[in-house]
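Input/output pair, single chain:
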Amino acid sequence: MSDEQGGGPDGVLSFDLTSRPWLPVQLKAGEEQLLSLREAFSRADEVRRLAGDLPTQDFALTRLLLAILHDALDGPQDTDAWAELWEEPDPFADVADYLAEHRGRFDLLHPRTPFFQTAGLHTASGEVSSLNRIVADVPNGDPFFTTRLPGAQRLSFAEAARWIVHAQAYDTSGIKTGVVGDPRVKGGKAYPQGVAWAGNLGGVLAEGTTLRETLLLNLIAADHQPTDAADRPAWRRPPTGPGAADDLSMRPAGLRDLYTWQSRRLLLHADTDGVHSVVLTYGDPLTVQNKHTLEPMTGWRRSQAQEKKLGEPLVYMPREHDPARAAWRGLEALITPRDPDTARRGEPASGLRPGIVDWIARLQAERILPRGRHIRVRTFGAVYGTQQSVIDEITSDAVSLAVLLLSDNDRALGQAAVDAVADADRAVLAIGDLAFDLARAAGSESESGKHAARDAAYAALDGPYRLWLDAIGEGDDPQQLRAAWQRTVRRIVSRLADDVIATAGGSAWHGRLVSSAKGETWLNADLADLWFRSRLNKALPLAHDTAPATIPGQQAPAGDPADAPVAAPSSRKVPA
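Output:
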């Protein structure tokens, strides 16, 4: 029987996730394979990363692996124990025996305890649903926007296992089928109770060069993250029944509980050829407010609206990722620690960086990770639409940086990286204003050109900023770094501005009378250009010397005129 088939003793369907390949990975050589849970840990040094069907699947699967690792090790208890694991040639040696001990709970098709499912789950009518309900790359209601035409009619057991883990993390809200035994059901329907837990998060992981490093970097010690003696993963708890569990008031009890939170009750329907349908409904609810002391894989923002609504003095909500913004543009929320002056004054912070970033900063502060060590901060998110009943978009990005930028004590380089984003923002605003001024000069009040110019500028700055950030190292001078970046921004944005002006058209060059703060002004392309150069000079004050604009590790073009101070527009021929 092949690995894709489900077979057990006496012909009973079985698919053992500890021994059957189902986890998609990319090896260091670039080849992609499916591995079992045992292989994922035993070969973690050979694996570059997980390579799931969607980025959010990678996030959910990584949390599953971390729950296994935390439970198998019963720790680590502190940074000393973590450091031993980091240096250990085989840090996951205990996992094989752990998986063997709990093997029965990792059987996808077990008749009494199917993995991440509820045995016997059924509706009053015996109705089952299409697999489109759990396969997130088939948009609900839009089956043509997928390669799975006419939808997910059948899945292999390996695929189904991955989508079950994803559903428990990212399932949509909306009205679901009511199941027998769930007291929340009304008229055969389960009414909206929100998306599954990870769907609320702007997910963040620290990524190393191998799966081994990634798992260890995200393996937070018990003395750093609050936990409880009752903390255990889903497979070490009693099997779930229909309806919410009875003991939720003191849960999640810790990371193992949280990473395997059973947001849904579901049951696969299968035969020897694979999975063909599913029963899916709501499981254990979990409110998002003020979970910042427990959930480390998202940033947090203070919500005064929630404070007013709940009558609470302080409420933090997960900070979701904006799909329109690259990760580097939100770097401040990702890496900046809490302002110590604010903390001393007893004032609440407006936002909190992800706990996993605090953890990496602690490893750097205690010299367990060298300051020059580089990691990738990966971001994940799902954007929901139509009352959270569908997933509209999946977001994923990453930035590579040295851990010294995360330091709580020496914040100069980290602040320079954050300030550099602000430099880019101001320059992008300047070119957007230029495009709008040119439109006004041509007799239009449309802002479409402004938005297009801004988008183009951010796209042009994306690669250079990532290179500049990744090249920052110990001993670099923050002021010199930022000056070099500002010169790079000026060069790139000035060139884009030349293109915007060149395509402005004859009407913009002729101009017209417009109202301004100082009265009426004859606005044409020359004046718009002059205003732009003035705004750019103010946006990038460190770019006004004659040093070459370079990104560390790159050579600036020799003799680039944009590297010289710009105080006035260059001479251009007016289009006929």
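The first helix runs from residue 37 to 42. The chain has a mean pLDDT of 91.
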